């Protein structure tokens, strides 16, 4: 789809001009000589440069370059920009650059114009005969296309590739494969049937011998695994016995520590009970001493408080008691202070004795607690050692029972040597087997190659026929699709249901249709000018709809040869092409005001 056109120094446009386009009918409207055709020629020039479709000198000022920029969207949805310039003083100078637009920014793509044509229209002939039509070409288009509709479709569908491929396949079948078959049959590796049978018998004998040796090897490997198992279990027995001895040493050391007492566990439990009972008695004694200490400390605090109160009364300088309001002799107060102080001193001596007793009790409790912990640790180690010995002995018994159930085995090294000898024998047989198999394989390969070559020969011949059939089917299918569009549009325009359409070698159609109960045959020569023009556009629209991915038509003044009634029909037809999505975009020019109104274009570009 064309999205924008920009020109500078191009034909009638001396200054920079830019027009944008979208989907639907994009109508360029204006009077004659307003530059409508020049705008369309700018699109053609961007793709193909100056040729017979660009009238006259394209520059407004011949001393400067004409510059045309065209933005378009390819069939993949990517955006591209063509910038082409032209200048001719002594000789023609043209430049062409194709950019890919990524986020609106130009990225260089190519300087080859063919790359732009491939992205938009695929081939120059498609663009110039189907997509782009200058003023006056619509009427003559059917006779100016290729000589035959089948040939035109073959060209558009690129069906020539089937003929090229079929010829290559035929050459391969007749020359290459035949030569390969003759070469294979001359190969000295080819064996007679008798030689093949002899080698097969030898191979069978070698395989039997190999099978016996592998069976023997398998048994030796099994016996070796048993020997390794026996060795591993004996090693485990030694480890268990060592662990058992360690537990025994633990029990012996604990018994020695406690002078080999009978029923040592009961003895230790009893010792713990005695010591814990003694601790409880010490706790009771300590509690009593602590209570006594608390009483004496309370008495001491009370006496110190009285002493402080008397001293405070003395220091106040008064001799009257604040409680009884009687005079107090200072000597009596001093005697009271001395008496209380002596009692405090006695209490402190008593508290010192109590603290000493409590500390002695706590130290004795600490020693007893330490003794209890040691006895409990010894008791735990003793019980754990006995359980460990019992568990280990059980495991030793199980291993011995399993060892007794195993068959007698030799030394592991003997088995290893036997395995090596058997592997050497098997290796030698494998060498012989590979030699025989190689000879048989070479001979078999020769036979397979002959079979494959014969199969390829038949398959290629089948593919040749299928290619021809597929080409004809594809051509017929596309032709029917195109005819279907023509029938549909013809019926919509003239309310005539087409029964059949046939084209001669010059693309002159003969149409059969039923009109008011009568079957009518009509060829191009009997069509009116309007019918010829509309049939030409219908054919183009059908080709674009069914063959091209870029669905754009560019028409220069398509209403110029139409009468007023045909203008209405044509406007409705172009409108339906867009509305029914046969084409996505129609860029056309006109000076006809009524045609513009009938078209109902999505966009109108007015040129003065």
UniProtKB/TrEMBL annotation:
Tell me which domain of life the UniProt entry assigns to the organism this sequence originates from: Archaea
Signal peptide range in chain numbering: none
> Which Gene3D superfamilies does UniProt cross-reference here?
Helix hairpin bin, P-loop containing nucleotide triphosphate hydrolases
Pfam families linked:
AAA_29
Looking at the keywords, is Coiled coil present?
yes
Taxonomic classification, please? Answer: Archaea, Promethearchaeati, Candidatus Heimdallarchaeota, Candidatus Heimdallarchaeia (ex Rinke et al. 2021) (nom. nud.), Candidatus Heimdallarchaeales
Which chain positions lie within coiled-coil regions?
A: 189-316, 344-378, 412-480
What this protein is called in its record is AAA family ATPase
């Amino acid at each position: 789809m064309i999205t924008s056109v920009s020109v500078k120094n191009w034909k009638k446009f001396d200054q920079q001009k830019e027009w944008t386009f979208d989907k639907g009918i994009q109508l360029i409207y204006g009077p004659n000589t307003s530059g409508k055709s020049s705008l369309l020629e700018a699109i053609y020039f961007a793709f193909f440069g100056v040729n017979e479709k660009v009238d006259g000198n394209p520059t407004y000022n011949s001393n400067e370059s004409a510059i045309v920029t065209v933005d378009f969207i390819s069939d993949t949805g990517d955006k591209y920009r063509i910038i082409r310039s032209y200048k001719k003083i002594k000789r023609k100078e043209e430049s062409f650059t194709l950019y890919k637009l990524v986020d609106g920014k130009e990225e260089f793509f190519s300087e080859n114009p063919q790359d732009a044509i491939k992205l938009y229209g695929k081939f120059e002939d498609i663009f110039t005969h189907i997509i782009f039509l200058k003023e006056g070409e619509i009427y003559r288009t059917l006779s100016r296309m290729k000589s035959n509709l089948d040939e035109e479709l073959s060209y558009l569908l690129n069906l020539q590739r089937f003929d090229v491929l079929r010829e290559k396949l035929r050459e391969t079948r007749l020359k290459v494969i035949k030569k390969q078959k003759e070469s294979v049959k001359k190969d000295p590796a080819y064996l007679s049937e008798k030689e093949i049978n002899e080698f097969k018998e030898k191979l069978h004998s070698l395989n039997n011998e190999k099978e016996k040796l592998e069976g023997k090897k398998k048994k030796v490997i099994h016996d070796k695994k048993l020997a390794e198992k026996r060795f591993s279990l004996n090693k485990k027995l030694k480890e268990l016995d060592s662990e058992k001895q360690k537990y025994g040493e633990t029990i012996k050391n604990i018994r020695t520590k406690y002078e080999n007492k009978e029923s040592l566990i009961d003895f230790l439990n009893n010792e713990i009970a005695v010591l814990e009972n003694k601790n409880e008695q010490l706790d009771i004694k300590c509690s009593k001493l602590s209570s006594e200490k608390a009483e004496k400390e309370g008495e001491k605090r009370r006496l110190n408080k009285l002493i402080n109160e008397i001293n405070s009364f003395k220091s106040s300088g008064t001799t009257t008691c604040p409680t009884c309001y009687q005079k107090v002799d200072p000597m009596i107060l001093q005697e009271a202070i001395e008496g209380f102080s002596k009692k405090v001193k006695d209490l402190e001596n008593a508290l010192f004795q109590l603290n000493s007793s409590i500390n002695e009790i706590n130290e004795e409790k600490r020693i007893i607690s330490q003794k209890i912990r040691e006895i409990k640790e010894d008791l735990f180690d003793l019980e754990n050692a006995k359980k460990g010995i019992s568990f280990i002995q059980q495991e030793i018994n199980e291993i011995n029972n399993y060892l007794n159930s195993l068959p007698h085995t030799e030394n592991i090294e003997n088995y290893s040597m036997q395995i090596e000898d058997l592997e050497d024998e098997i290796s030698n047989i494998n060498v012989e087997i590979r030699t025989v198999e190689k000879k048989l394989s070479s001979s078999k390969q020769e036979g397979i190659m002959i079979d494959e070559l014969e199969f390829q020969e038949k398959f290629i011949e089948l593919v040749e026929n299928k290619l021809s059939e597929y080409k004809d089917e594809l051509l017929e299918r596309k032709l029917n699709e195109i005819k279907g569009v023509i029938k549909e549009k013809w019926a919509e325009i003239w309310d005539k249901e087409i029964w059949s359409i046939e084209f001669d070698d010059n693309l002159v159609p003969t149409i059969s249709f039923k009109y008011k109960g009568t079957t009518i045959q009509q060829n191009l020569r009997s069509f009116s000018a309007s019918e010829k023009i509309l049939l030409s556009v219908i054919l183009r629209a059908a080709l674009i709809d069914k063959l091209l991915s870029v669905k754009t038509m560019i028409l220069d003044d398509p209403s110029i040869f139409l009468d007023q009634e045909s203008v209405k029909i044509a406007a409705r037809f172009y409108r339906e092409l867009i509305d029914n999505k046969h084409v996505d975009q129609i860029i056309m020019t006109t000076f006809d005001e009524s045609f513009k109104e009938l078209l109902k274009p999505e966009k109108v570009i007015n040129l003065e």
